[in-house]
Amino acid sequence: MLETCEKHIELYKELDSYIQNFKGKKGALINVLHKAQELFGWLPPEVQEYVADKLNISPATVYGVVTFYNFFSTKPKGKSQIKICLGTACYVKGADRVMERFLDELGISEGEVTKDGKFSVHGVRCLGACSMAPVVLVGEKDFYGKVTPDMVPSILKKYKGEG
Amino acid sequence: MPLTTNTILICAGGACISSGEESVKNALERKIKEYNLQEAIKIVETGCMGACSIGPLMVIYPEGVYYQKLTPKAAEKIVEEHLLKGRIVEEYLYKGDKGKIVPQPQEEIPFFSRQVKIATRNLGIIDPLNIEEYIARDGYFALYKALKEMKPEEVINTIKESGLRGRGGAGFPTGLKWEFARKAPGDEKYMICNADEGDPGAFMDRSILEGDPHTIIEAMTIAGYAIGANKGYVYVRAEYPIAIERLSEALKQAHEYGFLGENILDSGFSFDIEIRIGAGAFVCGEETALINSIEGKRGQPRVKPPYPAQKGLWGKPTNINNVETLACVPPIIKNGPQWFRQWGTEKSPGTKVFALAGKVKNTGLVEVPMGITLRELIYEIGGGSPTGKKIKAVQTGGPSGGVIPEEYFDTPVDFESLTQLGAIIGSGGMIVLDEDDCMVDVAKFFLEFTVDESCGKCTPCREGTKIMYEILNKITNGEGTEDDIETLEKLGNIIKDSSLCGLGQTAPNPVLSTLRYYKDEYIAHVRDKACPAKKCRNLISYVIDTSKCVGCTACARVCPASCIDGEIKKPHEIDQEACIKCGSCIEVCRFGAISKVSPALD
Predict the structure, then answer these.
(1) What is the ipTM of this complex?
(2) Which of A7, A14, B92, B347 has the smallest set of CB atoms within 10 Å of its CB?
(3) Spatial CB neighbours of B129, under 8 Å, sequence gap ≥ 6
(4) Which residue, A68, A91, A112, sits at the end of a domain?
């Protein structure tokens, strides 16, 4: 069985009880992977194998699904994930320049995590708030609308203390 | 129960949330509590009110006063003035032409008065989490009528006669789709709601799910009854957590009230709905890919035929409709097909929701009768350009659509007319482009999207779009040739003809339609190494007009590359070698001294 630290044992337990909800229901894999990523932050190989084992499907199938969908990550992400909307409205209003500034300020490339583990920057699909373009989402809830490159340092400042 | 004297409807749509709706609501609550008015004033968070560009928004009833661009401070003032003393706070009212104050723009301003709300009838009016408010707006009446007074075939005929067509992009007649699923042999059938709204720039489905989740539950149950399904799935994008949350809550309420579950309304019909969450794959908006995804597989499209109506989810007959299409169903059942046909055109009856975005003043969500012209939509309702720059074109239909130049803005918006112009209605995203937008760059943007989202199953789409993207990249970098333009055209047509699903078949559209109308821009890029819109970085330079520069140093201070030199109060100069062309200087210059030139300076 997998080697896990104490914190992870708890997480696996929680995942188990989630999987129980799907007993007798078909096609649970994607929902289970969502839960696993929510718990672990990303989907390392051992978590994928664990899910495969529990759902009685091959790890190859799980890996195939994980790598197909943008939402699932096989790399760790930063504590604060900066999601920059790359939808059309945001693009014509200069989202590319906002992205560039974030990467510049943090000294990373897209998808990478900063050395202190605090930030990662991701270009995401349309967030559906086109009127506020360009839009940036930090974490799950903090929306920033009409973002200009100049606003980037002050946005980052808010999260630098965290973690 | 104490009497409620005022009800405040505050918009909790996506754009208002991102412009600070929560802090406005908190300020309202704080102030109302301070004056001990909690009993008399009710605050309701509604779905998207549509006028996203002037958010956060709220409407105070009974008067119906419309407050816009709110801040916590504004909210406090409105409580003290309007709610306590009955004095309308003018500074936060809607301002029309020439700054005219309009307390109830709903009736006067074209953005509001030109709309006909069918699919979005409850948005901004009810509390989406309160089933009784939905019922009070005739909610679940259509379900009652269908289950108690109509046979499944009559339901299907009503939808057929209404002429309702799929609002997700393809425009297939909904009633016909239902009939196919009804007639397919099999006892086990499925009803799916496609809420995988993937077109960048379209957010009507998100808004309907967030603002009126019960309408989807009601419509799916009616559709389930019509086709003979007892189980439904809503497939929602993972990017829409609020929609998922509200829909889950609405499902619970519908169960409690007996609108879902066993023996609904004592009719003998049973139906239940489960939510399935997407995981970020554009192709899953294609119905067979979506079915694979619900089954927990990679979301790759299947070969059609067999169509989902014959062999869909778990191999059983399945009917799939998009959110906006379903939202039209309850009112059609309740009011009859002729009622729906009073709007729109012969072949495209009813209304369509459009998401106006880009270079237009009134961005937001609008529902208008089909057949309205693009000019009315963009200028009258959208208010034209926000900056006074010339509007050049509108992009419709997202990555599957195309651009329509300003010369064609008198075209009526319906399924056929837009297709003839090389664009599509698609899901209703409309991105307005102005003279600063380069058409080659726009095409490149969409191709980058498709390259990323191609599922990889068909070679022409997987490899072909990549080659097209590389060519576009070459052209925008100033390294393209005239042969490249020809290759783009040829390759685009091949991909169109040889791809399995809608994604591949439409992927070249953004390139083909910009080539159709803006070939001169492509030629300028390859022949003169110039970008007429001055957008493509490698083909432009920033220059300072020394006669206009007063030496305020604003540009030098903001330049991240420190490439602007000059003494205070003396004209500045840009070091072209070091300039990274970020455009920060042009934004801060208040004297109009900085401009872009193309081709680039050596």
Answers:
(1) 0.85
(2) A7
(3) B246, B249, B250
(4) A68
